[in-house]
Amino acid sequence: MKFSYAMLPDYPLHESLAAIELADQLGFHAVYAADETWHKDMWQLFAAAAGRTRTIRFGPSLSPVTLREPTLIAQAAATLDELTGGRAECVISSGNFGLLAQYCVDWTTTKPLSRVREAHRVMRTFLDEGAITHVGEFFNYRGLFTFARPVQRHLPLMLGAMRGPKSFQAAGEISDGVHHALSYTRSAYDYVVENVRIGAERAGKDWKSLDLGAWVVFATGPDADAARQAARAMVGLYASSMPAEQLERNGVDPDSLRDIIAAVGTGDLQRAYELTPPELADKLSISGTPQECADKLRSEVAAAGMNHAILAITDSALVNAFTGMELPKVAGVKEQLRLIHDEIMPAFSGSASGA
Fold this sequence. Notes:
Layout: E1 2-7, H1 13-25, E2 30-33, H2 42-50, E3 57-64, H3 70-84, E4 90-93, H4 97-102, H5 112-129, E5 131-135, E6 140-145, E7 157-160, H6 166-174, E8 177-181, H7 186-202, E9 211-220, H8 224-239, H9 244-249, H10 258-265, H11 269-275, H12 278-283, E10 286-288, H13 290-301, E11 308-313, H14 316-323, H15 333-344
Parallel strand pairs: 1-2, 1-11, 2-3, 3-4, 4-7, 7-8, 8-9, 9-10, 9-11
Antiparallel strand pairs: 5-6
Helix pairs in contact: 1-2, 2-3, 3-5, 5-6, 6-7, 8-11, 10-11, 13-15
């Protein structure tokens, strides 16, 4: 099991850089951030972090091909790969439906999976060959070239997927893996793995060789109740982007979130927190003491065959930025990174070195 840090780059930049440096020193596999307008620009942040780190990998998880042109994503990833000496990777999808709505884009009209499939083909060609001529349904190029060349022979390019089953099968078939966000049950991950396997076998690939990433809302610390409060404060925000099918695979009735999602839609995240019962927060996060978090990761995530824990660490500063709430007993990002390294990674074979 690899362990990575999924950051929301919303802290003061010097704090984000310090957290990345610490994650590098502790042997985390990668640091990821969403390539979304809501946050500070992850490409510039990671470029600034490149020279301060030695082994940690960098990339978007994920970058939206509906909003960002795929050859420009490939150009940025290749440039980051050179800056980091071959430590870049990339996860793409059609994009966050909530963000698309704010751009007045109706995702139902964008043919999301077909667009992502074609974008992946475009990016793979541009990364591997440095030039492309392509006539497609969504993207067209005539002799386009770039001097932005990756250091790695094969820069990993994964798909982000949540709904399924076709998106998971596509990830297994055409890409280097899948990053699946916001699931927390063994049955949900069994569904992911089974469909990735179907796609991989269709292409003659070994599904176990792929990057199978579980992107989860995460909070840990010696005070279990405080950690759960932090996760609870963010659950409504994230759950509002979960498809109904995914909620059901996680044992949650989509109708039970109607009022919470309405509060998120108005920007009232404190009200969303008040409407989120603790038991729902427990279902839709991994939070508590390090031992409790390790147990859930083992039984619900690793047991299904997922090989990469991508932990979206939630602390009091992040909660305060989104909700205005004060949760002073919650461990900070640096403390949580150390707890993950010291008390969670050792519970998984090979994890302590980030391997």
